[in-house]
Design a protein that fits this description.
Length: 292
């Protein structure tokens, strides 16, 4: 990829605010390059699937958007290599990357703007109906959102260290551990009851700072051999004081309330820990977290 290819991609990206398909004439005009050169580069970009083509013009593909974000991190001299994919069968694409400082980190591309205002499948459908909220905009919003939450929580709460964000991508510290889902806690030399209460403590700290995770489960908590843990995936986090604003934006049926989502997170956690003999009530943990 040459600088001019990136330039053309960026022109398409920006023009997609106004077009579903960006007309070739507009790309040529904005690029200030020779039209033959633009046509040639568009053909190559299309062959490499960085753009999609129709009779109306061109639009950025997911791969093209990933490329733009990746290129920005490289230009910022932040990352120098991209490694293997982490986590299987998930929505976001998550990779290990090597920073120029030689430290390993995690790069997460948000693929859907499924969580910019609220959570859940119903809302995703709602978003899909709204043509004017493009996936580009929605996925960027989700990434900005997750990055903001990490910045607000780190390092008080055990969450990944936020490093950088661009477009729909975030870079965060890599933590060596596996999802709770994939371990048998009895095989680890740890106090499971203490682990449970330590996690509750993090939920409480999070709440005090002003957030509810919103998608807490054994898939979004990493644990290592020593029994230390990290809570990840804040794409769906809910701001405790935000519910009023959200209610204004959303139609009535999407009304959400803090208590419901916090209890759902706690319920998920309890369901997971049940097989390890933890029997607490959702209400009591909820009251503890909110400080009642
Ligand atoms: N900071 C991190 N350190 C190490 N591994 C990580 C980190 N963040 C994510 N991972 C790995 O990548 C997987 C997917 O990450 P995450 O849960 O954030 O994305 P997701 O579930 O695909 O996203 P989303 O719910 O936003 O669509 C995790 O299950 C974990 O294995
Ligand atoms: Mg996850």
């Amino acid at each position: 990829m040459r600088d001019r290819d990136w330039k053309i991609l960026r022109i398409i990206e920006i023009s997609m605010r106004h077009h579903e398909w960006v007309p070739v004439d507009e790309i040529i005009k904005k690029s200030k390059l020779d039209s033959n050169e633009v046509l040639y580069r568009l053909k190559v970009l299309n062959r490499h699937k960085f753009v999609n083509r129709s009779t109306y013009g061109y639009r950025l593909s997911h791969k093209g958007y990933d490329g733009l974000a990746l290129n920005t991190f490289i230009k910022r001299d932040l990352i120098k290599a991209i490694g293997n994919k982490l986590g299987v069968g998930k929505e976001g694409d998550v990779f290990t990357v090597l920073l120029t400082s030689n430290r390993e980190a995690v790069l997460k591309f948000h693929k859907l703007g499924r969580t910019c205002f609220t959570r859940g499948k119903r809302y995703r459908l709602y978003l899909a109906d709204k043509r004017h909220i493009s996936w580009l905009y929605a996925s960027r919003l989700t990434a900005e959102r997750e990055f903001q939450v990490l910045n607000d929580l780190y390092p008080v709460v055990k969450v990944p260290e936020p490093i950088d964000q661009n477009r729909h991508a975030i870079i965060m510290g890599k933590w060596d551990g596996v999802e709770l889902k994939r371990v048998d806690l009895t095989k680890l030399d740890i106090d499971i009851k203490k682990l449970f209460w330590d996690i509750v403590e993090e939920i409480k700290k999070m709440y005090n700072i002003g957030y509810i995770h919103g998608d807490l489960s054994e898939f979004n908590i990493l644990i290592n051999e020593e029994g230390d843990f990290l809570i990840i995936d804040f794409a769906q986090a809910i701001e405790v004081r935000e519910d009023k604003i959200v209610l204004d934006i959303l139609p009535g049926e999407f009304k959400m309330d803090i208590e419901y989502y916090l209890k759902r997170d706690i319920g998920n956690l309890l369901r997971y820990f049940k097989k390890y003999g933890i029997r607490e009530s959702v209400d009591e943990i909820y009251n503890y977290v909110v400080g009642k």
